[in-house]
Amino acid sequence: MSTTVYVALGANLNDPVQQLEDAVLALRTIAENNAVTISPLYRSVPMGDVEQPDYVNGVASFNTNLTPMALLEALQHIENTQGRVREVRWGPRTLDLDLLLYGQECIDTPRLTVPHYGMKQRSFVLIPLADINPQLILPCNTELTHLITSEMRAELVQL
């Protein structure tokens, strides 16, 4: 059975826009009928204290027959294929793909937490997510649009 998933896209190295475009092509290979919906892209300030370039972020949505763990492995394979190196937490990266939502499931394992643990506080996730599904209700029964503040909207610049 197919499940609707939402994946956060982020990059700030090696032509970030191209990195995200390449990632979307790779996501099509795991999406049902190769269909992927993509939000507009936004420029955002990096999280944490690591000196690095601004990020380009967006969100993708698609249906998949992969299990949550198989999807996580597929996302990490795409990251690795595009040169992702995990050296510093919240450091610069060629590509970051985070599984935000897997249908309405709640998953809490050592390798995977869904809904994504930080998504409710991150403008670079919430705003692109609302761009592609403004009526979305999270598994905790919170309406997505109730989480977005005017301060969050001011933090991002649409490309």
From TrEMBL:
PROSITE patterns: HPPK. Its EC number is 2.7.6.3. This is 2-amino-4-hydroxy-6-hydroxymethyldihydropteridine pyrophosphokinase. Catalyzes the transfer of pyrophosphate from adenosine triphosphate (ATP) to 6-hydroxymethyl-7,8-dihydropterin, an enzymatic step in folate biosynthesis pathway. Coiled coil: none annotated. The keyword Membrane does not apply. Belongs to the HPPK family. Residues 89-100 form the 7,8-dihydro-6-hydroxymethylpterin-pyrophosphokinase domain. Pfam families: HPPK. Keywords: ATP-binding, Folate biosynthesis, Kinase, Nucleotide-binding, Transferase. It comes from the Bacteria. It is an enzyme of class 2 (transferase). CDD domains: HPPK (cd00483).
